[in-house]
Design brief:
The protein is mainly beta. Helix content is 14%, strand content 45%. It has helices at 323-331, 333-372, 379-387, and strands at 2-9, 26-28, 36-43, 45-48, 53-60, 67-70, 76-79, 82-83, 90-95, 99-104, 113-119, 125-134, 141-144, 148-149, 153-163, 168-173, 176-178, 181-187, 190-200, 209-215, 224-229, 232-241, 247-248, 253-262, 269-272, 282-284, 287-290, 299-307, 310-318, 320-321. Strands 2, 4, 6, 7, 8, 11 and 12 form a 7-stranded mixed beta sheet that branches. A 5-stranded antiparallel beta sheet has the order 1-3-5-10-9, with no helix packed on it. Strands 14-22-24-27-26 form a 5-stranded mixed beta sheet, with no helix packed on it.
């Protein structure tokens, strides 16, 4: 913003000094005392807390009249070129017929306000430069309400305790923005801003990166960020990595139990179903080693793990093979095949015989049934045969 005014002028020239002066916002007062009108211009200034602000008072047709610069409390900082207030943060870096320039270092909130730049003439005219002090946010603070547990909800809070104007907060989860609930509280001239985000977590969310980002005009496009690594607790899992290939007598068995969980189980227990571990078995945490295997080592081996959220186990069935038995079994394979083929042939022959007998019986029964239907026609022949005939020899047939 730019403001302009005019006034009368006259008077002698000013003596140039370069001191630093006074605390709080910046207000310039230019006074001139003489008969002719002068023109004064002053510009508003915005500065970040702790930064450096420059206040300019431009003079037009300056004739040496008195120039006075005052702060927002109406304390005189400079009278012409002479320091009037002992504040080394203010420095008069330029005092000419065209411009009065003051630099304020390490700006504070209390420096904020209107600074008067005035020429004191017969008709006094002045301009006010408004100094605005911004308070940029520091890196946000991220807090977790309770320990995150698989299947439950986690609540994260992001806080910027001091900013002016209030900072804007955003949440990101692995670069994907999450919606949070923001609130602010005014503390004097500054604001405290809080943003809360809640969401459900699973074990896959463990070690995800949560980012709280603060933006603010005083940061000039930059961002303040704080990252929080999610710590999700979950029940353990156990998985036995078995050896490759067949285990034979004399071999060494090495089983590794891969364990996961949060918190990570610190104790791993090895057992054998219905029996104790072999005396020569060596347990070193997640590794079980059994040297010189024998048939007596056969069985189901298990590893067991636990944490405060649950338990888990995995099993491995050990079968130790006798090399001699394997060779014998391999040589007996052809005989077994031949025996199986012979048994199949015998079975097929029996089936054929059974079918042939069944067909024969069925055909004979059909023939008897047909002859039985013709008994009346051959009644006389049957009687003659039973009674011994009629004296002459005759061949008769009798069907049963």
């Amino acid at each position: 913003m730019r403001a302009a005014g005019s006034g009368g002028g006259g008077g002698g020239g000013g003596k140039r000094h370069s001191p630093l002066v006074a605390a709080a916002g910046i207000l310039l007062l230019c006074v001139a005392g003489r008969a002719r009108a002068q023109e004064v211009q002053a510009e508003n200034v915005t500065v970040a807390e702790g930064g450096q602000a420059e206040i300019n008072c431009k003079l037009h047709q300056y004739d040496g009249s008195i120039v006075v610069i005052q702060n927002p409390s109406r304390q005189t900082l400079f009278f012409n070129g002479t320091r009037a207030l002992k504040d080394e943060r203010f420095q008069l870096v330029e005092f000419t017929q065209k411009q009065v320039r003051i630099v304020l270092s390490n700006a504070r909130l209390e420096d904020e306000g209107g600074y008067f730049c005035q020429l004191y003439t017969e008709d006094t005219h002045h301009q006010i430069a408004i100094l605005t002090v911004l308070v940029p946010p520091e890196n946000p603070l991220v807090e977790v309400k309770e320990q995150a547990v698989e299947g439950g909800e986690v609540e994260l809070t992001c806080i910027v305790p001091r900013s002016r104007p209030a900072a804007t907060l955003r949440w990101y989860r692995d670069r994907r923005e999450l919606k949070g609930m923001s609130s602010k509280q005014e503390n004097g001239k500054v604001f405290s801003i809080t943003s809360v985000v809640r969401f459900r977590v699973e074990r896959k969310d463990h070690s995800s990166i949560m980012t709280c980002e603060a933006t603010h005009p005083a940061l000039r496009g930059q961002r303040k960020q704080t990252q929080y690594v999610l710590d999700v607790q979950y029940s353990p899992t156990a998985r036995i990595h078995p050896p490759q290939g067949v285990m034979r007598e004399g071999d060494t068995l090495v089983l590794t139990c891969a364990v996961n969980g949060n918190p990570l189980p610190t104790e791993i227990k090895w057992t054998r179903a219905n029996e104790s571990l072999p005396e020569r078995a060596l347990v070193e945490g997640e590794v079980l080693t059994i040297p010189s295997l024998s048939l007596l080592d056969n069985g189901t081996y298990s590893c067991h793990v636990a944490n405060k959220h649950g338990r888990s186990s995995d099993q491995y069935v050990l079968v130790v093979y006798d090399p001699g038995a394997i060779v014998e079994a391999q040589t007996s394979v052809p005989y077994a095949i031949v025996g199986g083929i012979l048994a199949l042939l015998v079975f097929l022959v029996i089936c054929v015989l059974i079918v042939m007998v069944w067909c024969s019986i069925r055909q004979k029964g059909s023939y008897l049934t047909h002859e039985a239907s013709g008994l009346d026609e051959h009644g006389e022949a049957r009687e003659a045969f039973l009674n011994g005939g009629d004296g002459h020899k005759r061949k008769e047939e009798f069907f049963i």
